């Protein structure tokens, strides 16, 4: 009893005491189960900084792509890039360049890894929940889980049939049609799930050389899942998905042009597409021991053209026509222990990349075309064990042995290859303060894959080694006030060695090298609070300070400068009301600090906040919803992309009306 009282006092001091007047309410927040450690746990039991976002929250707010997650996850953002299908995440101050063909954050879609920025997208249709795990996770997840993991879990078809249709109309002639349905083909044995979307919207950058906007968007996608339960111990799911873009140009303009206007006879286009197929098999060997296999093939066709001087002369332009294919296989043995028992995971993982690369750049000197084949093979053995030490202590060690080979074959030149061996470890110690409250200390290592500069013929296509991170983290997480409050606080310090830094020599000419060291430290705070009645509150704050310790190039000494694209502060405050009369209203205020776009810290995107509002009403099978994103129409252009040549325009206010029906 004494420890519980001390814990509640500590939480009240942490929160400044608000909400104390309604502690006596008997209802509380539901228990949230996650699979961040590849076994099922309550969110509070995971010894790491973790945010869980429900699919309902995202749908009500009109979220339609992976970039929208940044509004609900402090400490997570995306580089300003402007091209659909490619997203470069930023977490705990680190990110990667587009030409690295690797990411500092791993994304999982139903357990299938997405390891590069190309294809790092999802329309969030049918997503039941999103788990965002912050901090290095390479022990369990391998390369490119350097600073965290974003895991999307879609709804599984089962005995409960459903069919949902939704239409959305909104700003700039937004039109969206969505459906998500499932049905048992053979009761208790075979189930089919199908979902799809068609979405188009006018752009917001006027093209003075042609009638209309330069950056129109159109997307269509479909997903299919076939689930088979041959016995009560075996669960087999076959999934297929496809996503196609038919976009105009990126929302770019000349750096000096603040108005959303360009003068370009041919501003560009995006005809990218993605396709994936996976087979997920789980077989229960005993009541607490299971064998899991996930086999997948992903292909992303990155196909864009882009005017980069954005004038009638069109002196500079670039284009990409690249096919990135990854085959992956994971086989693991999972033990799901009961309360007070150990849980562990032991697994093998392998993947193979086969990327066909083509890049074209036009300048006043002519047109330069680069073609190459980039291949990679990775094989890993990993394990993690959560061991109870008495009633209050837990110890979780983990280890991963991974071997990688990368080979580059430029057209007309010989093959270059490199091999690396990486050993990553983690060790977490937890102490139980109360029923649902834990203190933890965690040491973890992470790494991002090495590679080659596939388009740097003038320098001999140099290679670069993996980037490595060592992280030390302390945290406290749990529930309080009869489960009215769920909280998590983490502080961390990271050392980054062999840092992969990217230099843009001119538009389209990029070079990556292990030329820097850096240090990163920060604090993350997350709160879910049931205010009483039908009100809930969610809040989060992330403070990060990532600075170069060593980094010098031809433009100067950058020691002490911020890492590009990493804000020092980000946060959110959300409130939701769910009425007994089947209507709801929610507001979400999110923001981040100033973000630099280059290592010299010369170009930047200003700090900003965005207010998003949503409300809706449900009547029987019908649902009507209204959302307004960026209510105040806040501008936060990225001024100085591509070494100071380009301004990326931020999107204006968007209003949408959703009408849905459940059949």
UniProtKB/TrEMBL annotation:
Boundaries of every TonB-dependent receptor plug domain copy: 44-149
Sorted UniProt keywords: Cell outer membrane, Ion transport, Iron, Iron transport, Membrane, Receptor, TonB box, Transmembrane, Transmembrane beta strand, Transport
Coiled coil: none
UniProt subcellular location: Cell outer membrane
Region (Disordered): 256-278
GO cellular component: cell outer membrane
Pfam hit, one: TonB_dep_Rec_b-barrel
Domain annotation TonB-dependent receptor-like beta-barrel: ranges: 219-631
Biological processes per GO annotation: iron ion transport
Membrane topology reported for the UniProt record: Multi-pass membrane protein
Entry superkingdom: Bacteria
The family this protein is said to belong to: Belongs to the TonB-dependent receptor family.
Protein name according to UniProt: TonB-dependent receptor
Organism lineage string: Bacteria, Pseudomonadati, Pseudomonadota, Gammaproteobacteria, Oceanospirillales
């Amino acid at each position: 009893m004494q420890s519980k009282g001390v814990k509640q006092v500590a939480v009240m001091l942490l929160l400044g005491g608000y909400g104390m007047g309604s502690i006596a309410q008997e209802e509380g927040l539901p228990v949230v189960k996650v699979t961040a450690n590849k076994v099922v746990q309550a969110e509070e039991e995971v010894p790491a900084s973790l945010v869980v976002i429900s699919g309902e929250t995202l749908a009500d707010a009109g979220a339609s792509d992976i970039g929208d997650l940044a509004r609900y996850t402090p400490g997570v953002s995306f580089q300003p890039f402007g091209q659909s299908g490619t997203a470069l995440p930023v977490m705990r101050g680190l990110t990667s360049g587009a030409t690295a063909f690797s990411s500092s954050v791993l994304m999982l879609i139903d357990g299938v890894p997405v390891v590069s920025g190309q294809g790092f997208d999802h329309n969030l249709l049918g997503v039941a929940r999103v788990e965002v795990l912050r901090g290095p996770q390479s022990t369990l997840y391998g390369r490119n889980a350097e600073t965290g993991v974003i895991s999307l879990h879609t709804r599984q078809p089962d005995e409960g049939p459903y069919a949902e249709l939704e239409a959305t109309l909104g700003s700039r002639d937004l039109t969206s049609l969505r459906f998500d349905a499932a049905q048992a083909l053979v009761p208790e044995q075979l189930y089919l799930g199908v979902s799809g979307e068609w979405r188009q919207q006018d752009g917001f950058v006027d093209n003075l050389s042609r009638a209309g906007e330069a950056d129109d968007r159109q997307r269509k996608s479909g997903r299919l899942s076939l689930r088979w339960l041959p016995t009560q111990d075996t669960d087999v799911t076959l999934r297929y998905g496809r996503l196609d873009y038919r976009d105009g140009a990126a929302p770019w303009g000349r750096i000096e042009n603040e108005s959303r206007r360009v003068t370009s006879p041919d501003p560009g286009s995006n005809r990218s597409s993605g396709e994936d197929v996976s087979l997920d098999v789980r077989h229960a060997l005993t009541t607490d021991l299971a064998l899991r296999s996930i086999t997948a093939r992903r292909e992303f066709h990155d196909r864009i053209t882009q005017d980069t001087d954005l004038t009638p002369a069109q002196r500079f332009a670039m284009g990409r026509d690249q096919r990135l294919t990854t085959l992956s296989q994971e086989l693991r043995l999972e033990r799901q222990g009961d309360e007070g028992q150990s849980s562990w995971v032991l697994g093998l993982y392998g993947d193979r990349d086969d990327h066909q690369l083509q890049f074209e750049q036009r300048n006043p000197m002519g047109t330069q075309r680069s073609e190459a084949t980039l291949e990679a093979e990775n094989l890993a053995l990993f394990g993690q064990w959560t061991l109870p030490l008495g009633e209050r202590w837990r110890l979780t060690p983990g280890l991963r042995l991974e071997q990688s080979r990368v080979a580059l074959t430029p057209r007309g030149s010989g093959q270059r290859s490199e091999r690396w061996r990486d050993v990553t470890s983690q060790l977490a110690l937890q102490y139980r303060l109360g029923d649902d409250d834990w203190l933890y200390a965690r040491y973890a290592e992470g790494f991002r894959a090495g590679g080659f500069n596939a388009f740097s013929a003038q320098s001999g296509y140099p290679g670069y080694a993996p980037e490595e991170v060592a992280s030390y983290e302390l945290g406290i997480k749990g529930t309080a006030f009869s489960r009215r409050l769920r909280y998590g606080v983490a502080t961390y310090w990271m050392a980054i060695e062999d840092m992969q830094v990217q230099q843009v020599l001119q538009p389209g000419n990029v070079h990556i090298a292990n030329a820097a060291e850096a240090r990163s430290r920060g604090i993350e705070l997350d709160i879910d609070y049931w205010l009483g009645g039908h009100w809930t509150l969610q809040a989060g704050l992330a403070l990060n300070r990532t600075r170069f310790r060593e980094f010098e190039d031809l433009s100067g000494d950058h020691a002490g400068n911020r890492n590009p694209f990493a804000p020092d502060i980000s946060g959110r405050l959300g409130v939701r009301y769910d009425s007994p009369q089947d209507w709801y209203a929610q507001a979400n205020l999110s923001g981040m600090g100033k973000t630099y776009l280059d290592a010299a810290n010369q170009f930047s995107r200003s700090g900003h906040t965005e207010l998003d509002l949503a409300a809706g009403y449900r009547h029987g099978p019908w649902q009507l919803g209204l959302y307004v994103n960026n209510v105040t129409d806040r501008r936060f252009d990225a001024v100085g992309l591509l070494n100071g040549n380009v301004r990326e325009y931020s999107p204006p206010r968007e209003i949408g009306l959703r009408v849905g029906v459940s059949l």
